[in-house]
């Protein structure tokens, strides 16, 4: 079976071709998926009724340990883990979630990055509090200054080229990361480096440390593992490929309940240098408590409390994409005409340094916010996505289909109106729509250069929120969510794989 993962780092043109291939291969193994999914769902759910716990709870807060200077790391540990994320929100977020999971096994975790990206990761974490976990040690390194151009909402593609300068400069983390690894290697029997696949260059010296080994976290689904990047990204991506660090295995932010057959395919097709892989996702918490009385609770959650179950659609296109004023107008008009309730996060895409410079405010049609008052909310800043998706009033998600958003939506049982923007997103959209059948298409990838009209938006919102078809998707999403939640519980498949990974690094 030819699987599109063989296509690496190609141009946008090839994205289109590979999607067709993915499509046919996904159809041909669909029955396999359904069977496996049924078996897993029943076995997982069978166990889950009595043992409803979330991941092991973290150790109590010890504030003094939290930002311990590197110079005084003294104790000897069995195993120490160092996490090396790519400095972009989705990647920072995902590996910070993973840090929490590993930390819950009482293993010291060191999370590295620039000062600004560490701060970004911490202030935007959702579903739990990184300040409350003393086992996570943050290391802030400096790198040469880099350009932080604003995103261009009118660019011909939605790929976040504004982040290329920070990606390019992030390779300078190589030296300080190596120095940290050398220092930590003396305090631990084994040093385990978990790196984003786009940070291979930075960790290429791991092989020089005798008690260190590295594990790659691709950050995508198994279905889409080798994303296709546009031309602007190929230099940086190739840099990572050329160093080819010896990876001792792969850690997937997914689980067998979602895409077991693709995980198997990944091993069978031998596309990587290691046959060891662990599907230990979702990395994100699968249970979030809304903290009803908390002062820091986002106001849109209070509003959600007052709405009927499954009556609100959440709209957000992630951290890397800005919509143009023209697109914003079509979305606004479509939402208005749909008559449905909504929370729409309309913020500018991230710059290389999110704490620098002004953010653009996309224009909305005159009078829009007044017209939809009481029925819809436009959020202009960061929104607690996991809590929103986890809220019982949320019944649909219009999303760019970044992998974090997909797996969060799957975790919370919310079907998706797919509006893919770039990279792995069009394939994730196919996974949701054609394989899992918990999504419908808004933006047609074959009409990439056409404006998505208000009529398309209106129809998609109605289909998802107010039709029998939408209700069926919601039902399937709920079932998948149950299987995924069962997976991370004691005895569930993801939890067993996580236990097995921890046992492996403690061997
Ligand atoms: C990024 O680095 C590559 C070389 O690795 C270079 O060709 C490219 O111009 C750089 N891009 C930016 C925006 O700095």
UniProtKB/TrEMBL annotation:
Belongs to the UDP-glycosyltransferase family. Pfam families: Glyco_transf_N, UDPGT. This is Glycosyltransferase. GO terms for molecular function: zeatin O-beta-D-xylosyltransferase activity. Residues 1-24 form the signal peptide. It comes from the Eukaryota. GO terms for biological process: cytokinin metabolic process; glycoside biosynthetic process. It comes from Coffea canephora.
């Amino acid at each position: 079976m030819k699987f599109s993962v063989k296509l690496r780092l190609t141009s946008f043109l090839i994205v289109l071709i590979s999607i067709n291939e993915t499509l046919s291969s996904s159809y041909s193994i669909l029955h396999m998926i359904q069977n496996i999914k049924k078996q897993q769902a029943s076995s997982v759910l069978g166990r889950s009724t009595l043992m409803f716990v979330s991941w092991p709870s973290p150790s109590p807060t010890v504030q003094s340990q939290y930002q311990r200077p590197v110079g005084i790391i003294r104790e000897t540990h069995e195993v120490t883990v160092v996490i090396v994320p790519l400095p972009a929100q989705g990647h920072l977020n995902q590996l910070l979630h993973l840090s929490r999971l590993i930390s819950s096994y009482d293993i010291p975790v060191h999370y590295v990055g620039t000062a600004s990206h560490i701060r970004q990761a911490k202030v935007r974490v959702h579903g739990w509090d990184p300040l409350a976990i003393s086992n996570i040690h943050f290391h802030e390194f400096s790198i040469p200054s880099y350009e932080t151009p604003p995103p261009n909402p009118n660019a011909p593609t939605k790929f976040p080229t504004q982040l290329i300068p920070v990606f390019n400069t992030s390779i300078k983390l190589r030296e300080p990361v190596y120095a940290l690894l050398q220092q930590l290697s003396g305090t631990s029997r084994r040093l385990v480096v978990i790196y984003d696949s786009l940070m291979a260059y930075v960790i290429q010296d791991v092989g020089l440390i005798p008690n260190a080994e590295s594990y790659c976290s691709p950050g995508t689904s198994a279905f889409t593992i080798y994303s296709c990047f546009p031309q602007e990204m190929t230099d940086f991506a190739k840099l990572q490929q050329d160093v080819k660090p010896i990876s001792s295995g792969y850690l997937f932010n997914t689980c067998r309940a979602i895409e077991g057959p693709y995980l198997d395919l990944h091993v069978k097709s031998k596309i990587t240098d290691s046959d060891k892989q662990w599907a230990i996702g979702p990395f994100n918490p699968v249970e979030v408590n809304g903290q009803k009385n908390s002062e820091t609770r986002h106001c849109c959650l209070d509003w959600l409390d007052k709405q009927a179950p499954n009556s609100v659609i959440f709209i957000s296109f992630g951290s890397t994409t800005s919509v143009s004023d023209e697109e914003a107008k079509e979305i606004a008009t479509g939402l208005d005409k749909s008559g449905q309730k909504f929370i729409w996060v309309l913020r500018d895409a991230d710059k290389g340094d999110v704490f620098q410079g002004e953010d653009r405010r996309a224009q909305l049609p005159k009078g829009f916010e007044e017209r939809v008052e009481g029925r819809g909310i436009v959020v202009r800043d960061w929104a607690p996505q996991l809590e929103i998706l986890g809220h019982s009033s949320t019944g649909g998600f219009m999303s760019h289909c970044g992998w974090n958003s997909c797996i969060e939506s799957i975790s919370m049982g919310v079907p998706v109106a797919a509006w893919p923007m770039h990279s792995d997103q069009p394939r994730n959209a196919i996974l949701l729509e054609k394989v899992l059948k918990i999504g419908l298409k808004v933006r047609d990838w074959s009409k990439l250069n056409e404006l998505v009209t208000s009529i398309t938006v209106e129809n998609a919102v109605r289909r998802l929120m107010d039709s029998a078809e939408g209700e069926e998707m919601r039902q399937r999403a709920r079932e998948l969510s149950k299987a995924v939640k069962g997976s991370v519980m004691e005895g569930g498949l993801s939890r067993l794989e996580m236990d097995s990974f921890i046992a492996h690094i403690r061997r």
